[in-house]
Amino acid sequence: MKGFRPGAARVIDLPDGSTTLKGLSAFRFFCISWLVFTGPVMAQPGELHSYARVLDDGSLEIRGHIVRLHGIHIPETERQCRGWSSPVRCADRGVLQLDFKIQGFVHCYTVGVFDDGSLDGVCYVGRSSQKEGEDLAAWMVRNGWAMALPDAPFEYVALERIARQRGLGVWGIPVDSVRIR
User: Residue 41's pLDDT is what?
Assistant: First the structure.
């Protein structure tokens, strides 16, 4: 047969109308089956570490995946612009704080998947083999830029209460409404 290589797989029509692969080794069959059946699972990684871009809603884009920080909500505030950096970035104040904190590289562990396909993750900055790094969601809540959701770890709830008591971030005096006379 023209173009046939020894060991290559061929589709053979059987008398009962079905088809089979002829010449496919068991190892190749296993590898192809594994790739076919595990493909959708691989699209939902359990761990991501790479450059992250902070989106306008406070979620992160990492390697084409949208990751929301687990257990927190970043409330909407009046949009501000960070004009001292290039390029100029305009967003809610909490989003700007998150963007400033990340400075690019994050390490995330996914804990779930939302209905829209985005990932629910616990993300860290400054993580290495020697350092645990800093939990971004805890940092946001501790500084008053996010609220703990009902399913959040107890640590986040406690940090939110402390931030409220101290008047930090969104719990402080609304700077947007101060007028100079």
Answer: 36
Are 146 and 73 within 8 A, CB to CB?
A: yes
Beta-strand relationship, 89-91 and 47-54: unpaired
CB 159 within 8 A of CB 145: no
> For residue 87, is it left (φ>0), alpha (ψ between -120 and 50) or beta?
beta
Report the half-sphere exposure of 153 (CA within 13 A, side-chain side). 12
**What domains does the chain contain, in order, with CATH numbers?**
10-42 (no CATH), 47-171 (2.40.50.90)
State the pTM of this model.
0.68
Could you read off the pLDDT of 61-86 as tens digits, one per residue?
Answer: 999 999 999 999 998 877 777 665 55
Beta-strand relationship, 119-125 and 65-69: parallel
Classify each residue of 31-57 as buried b or exposed e, where b means 16 or more C-beta atoms within 10 Å of its C-beta.
eeeeeeeeeeeeeebeebbeebebbee
Rounded to 5 degrees, what angle do the CA atoms 98, 103, 109 make? 70
